[in-house]
Fold:
Amino acid sequence: MTKEKKKKNHVPIRLNALFLAVFFLFSILIFRLGYVQIVQGEEYQRSADKKENVTARLDAPRGKMMDTENRVAVDNKPVYSITYTRTQKTSAEDREAIAEKLAGYIKKDSKNVTERDKKDYFIFLHQKEVESRISPAEKKQLNDDQYYKLMLDRITKKDLDSFTPHQIEVLAIKREMDSGYALTPQRIKIGASQKEIATISEHLSELPGIDIKPDAKRDYPYGDTFKALFGQVKQIPSSKMDFYLSRGNERNDLVGTSFLEEQYESLLRGKKSSVKYVTDKAGNPVGEPVEVEGSRGKDLTLTVNMELQQKVEDVIEKAMKKAKSGGSAYANRDLTEAYVVMMNPENGEILSMAGKKYDTKTGQYKNAPFGTVYNSFEMGSAVKGATVLTGLQQGAITPATHFYDAPLVFGDGRKMKSAHSGLGSIGPVEALEASSNVYMWHVAMKLAGYDYAHKRFIDHHVDQAFRVLRDSYSQFGLGVPTGIDLPSEATGYNTGMSNQLAQAMFFAIGQFDTYTPLQMAQYVSTIANNGYRMQPHLLKEVREPSTQPGKLGKLDYKFEPHVMNKIEMKQEYLDVVHQGFRQVMVGSHGTAAAYFKNKSYQPAGKTGTAQVDVKSGLNNKTLVGYAPYDKPEVSFAVVVPKVREGSINLEIGSGALDAYFKLKKDGNKTK
Structure:
């Protein structure tokens, strides 16, 4: 009993000791918290107020672009850039002083300096003088924004002309320094020379915020080939600043500003690296920043074959030089441009988009592939395939319908005839082969309700003929967007309507509305594949950045062919046009037989000549086609504006197809 009582007495003692210890520890903790909060609270608050977390984001290299054979066509070239990083408290005067010094060490291009930039800079340098040009009465009536706008308005052309070249260069540098955010490097110059790098390195101590950083600049292994359609990478245009800021971009970001670089900006743009700073109240960094590495943008595989592209460009330039130098003294002196589009009619892949422009000032031939998308022309008889199919579909003609190809004489004495005579009674196949205008005019007259045999209208519906023809043409891609994966495209010029029968007749032979070379390629592709209007596209695949040199990254996306519309047309009608197009290339009256009759790849197509200036004899020479005619794998369009004489369209077309099939034979895939 006594031992049990002693054990029980020990339990309360131990519990009391435990409670006492806990109480003592809590007392110390409470005392410490009270001391920190009451005695040292203000000091800690002041310290916390002095610090701010700031994150600066730095651009990552953009994704590469490769051709259909996975050859790199757009790469990133390592360069060094001169950058400026300002603190949150750096003044405009500080930046101007640094820009003044920096202008003595580097050469800065001033082409991006705007008139507004100059006016702002003039106010910065001469604020009191400009303010004196505004009366006190005027100032009282204006808010700050209105007052500054009036200051801008009071700056004269003489003021702007007073800037020296050195001041403009300082402005160009300061302009870059003022953009973007604090603690985020602004590029002052991309691709600094070795001399500039050495000079800046020697004077870094007197240039606060200036640094030399590794950077990347777009590089083009194939030179100017297709370069224009790759697009440019520049600072965000002011007109699109709000759009990019809403997407999380920063003001000083470099973005794609045209063509493929702009179209696929979201894919090509890499994930930025970030640098996290802690700054004091004055905006100065405290301690070492924390860096988070970014990643390169995604790689694009394009449908274009760069080797084919180069060969087609060579074909165009050689043909233009020959046309401009040969023949009579007046031979083709007005010839300044020519275009070719080649695509796969089955899936819409663009194989080549080539253009050449002759610079009359320098005498040089420059690549201008953008003309295939943005320039439009009257195409002449190349559109007659659509005219025949419209006539067949509307019941104006049948595959067996024949018309006698003789001059048409109207009541007012006008006479209209085909370019070739002696064709006699011809059907639609022969009409396409010999490019009979008379046959196409009969189709237009039928659509308008005109009975030529009795020289009268059964139903006067010229406007209906226009609507039917234009609507039918649009089903082939003529006069409407093709859907090409570029930021924008031209759709040609719609000349409107007319109640004159002659105008509807001219429409039927391609001398009314205008179309782009790309539209012509889509049109002939739709005929080649029996009525499927395929979306033309330049993107083939998207891949993750490769981690191993020379190897492709993981496939992220593959473009699927897209049918924009299907033409509901009897196959026998399409076969009529196929036969006619084939005869153009091989028939005894074939307008392209001289160049294509013996080609082993068995082409089919249609020539065109549109008169653009009857007095001077200038014509647009065109050619559309596909090969092989029985199982088309490539379609093409050739457009050569303002040609006086010769068959340059046929020379270019045959040269382009020869290049395609030779590459295929040599084992270099073009599909």
In short: The CA atoms of residues 279 and 285 lie 4 Å apart. The chain has a mean pLDDT of 88.
